[in-house]
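Need the bound structure for zinc ion, inputs here:
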Amino acid sequence: VATRISDLKVDLHVHTCLSPCADLSMTPAVAVARARELGFDGLAICDHNSAENVPAARRAAEGTGLEVLGGMEITSSEEVHVLGIFGTDEALRQMQETVYANLPGKNDETYFGRQIVMNENDEAVDACDRLLIGATTMGITEVVSCIKALGGIAIASHVDRDSYSLIGQLGIVPEDLALDALGLSFRCLAAGKQKSYEVWGLPLVSGSDAHFPSELGRSFTVVHAENASFEELAAALARDGVAVGSALRS
Ligand SMILES: [Zn+2]
Ligand SMILES: [Zn+2]
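Answer from helper R.:
Posting the output first, comments after.
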């Protein structure tokens, strides 16, 4: 059987209406529909400290050919955002359990917004009352170790940003962190500044970090692989078979 490697377009950083800061119109089904319109092969649903809208996105994508990867954007105790993307439902469930066990506080809808769990038909089925916008009590080393112990992919989010980023908070990418990639924001790509992050010797990826449907597509990752599955993405990252892309590049 001949292998067919092609350039696949994936968005590794998509929020839904479960994130308190995301728009309520950003439902899992809408994110999937918009990603398909934009010609994406895959997307990772990564809400703040929660994966409760992953099942709805998966069901919405069933039979469409769009790959939906399950993940979350975890906030470490240093207020560093890290994407954890997982290959199995069981690994995602275990990470969710660990994050929830280390995430103090209750959400205040008035200040932070609603956190809606949806089904694939855009119906609200639950509201999460945890303080998803908050930081976990887990240090960055612990967060990354936990992701890797569960066989997941660990990506430092938007490292070009001053706030909530590894380089913004620590000033460096610590050598002993078992990261699979550094994430760059759409702004970094639009400004053509991605080169300066090659110095850390890690693959560079990007995702829209969309909180609104209109933000999908503004940046993405091109994966040289047979398909957009978790296994193919992990293998591509291991051989640096990825590239960043932006719809806004000048
Ligand atoms: Zn973030
Ligand atoms: Zn984000």
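Comments: The CA atoms of residues 8 and 227 lie 7 Å apart. The chain has a mean pLDDT of 96.
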